[in-house]
Amino acid sequence: MKSGKLEKSLINLRKATDRFAEALQEPESSIVMDATIQRFEFTYELMWKTLKIFLEDIHGIRAVSPRLVFKEAYALSIIEHEDIFLEMIQSRNLLSHTYNEEQAEQIYKKCPLYLSAIKNLYQRISVY
Length: 128
What we know:
By secondary structure, the chain is mainly α. The protein is built from 5 helices and no strands.
């Protein structure tokens, strides 16, 4: 049974995912790239924290870091491609600790893949 906290987190994740998708529909420019990356960052944060709540509420599993959350979700077949989610951790960390335009461009190009994985995850956990 979903808690109120999980319901609220799912609503916020859906909104963030929609905003992330919206940014990816814009013609590419430096401003759009920056906005897309920013939307990836906040969607990623909401996604792993929502999944953490889901694991606790639905499966009774306590995981305290993104890596552990994704590994548990993969073990339960909630996510199909663990490597994509682990790559998101690396991308998020690279963006947070330094700004390198070349790295930012590479991560921007991966954003459609990340969005697809996040949408798939949302669909799987929102039906419980």
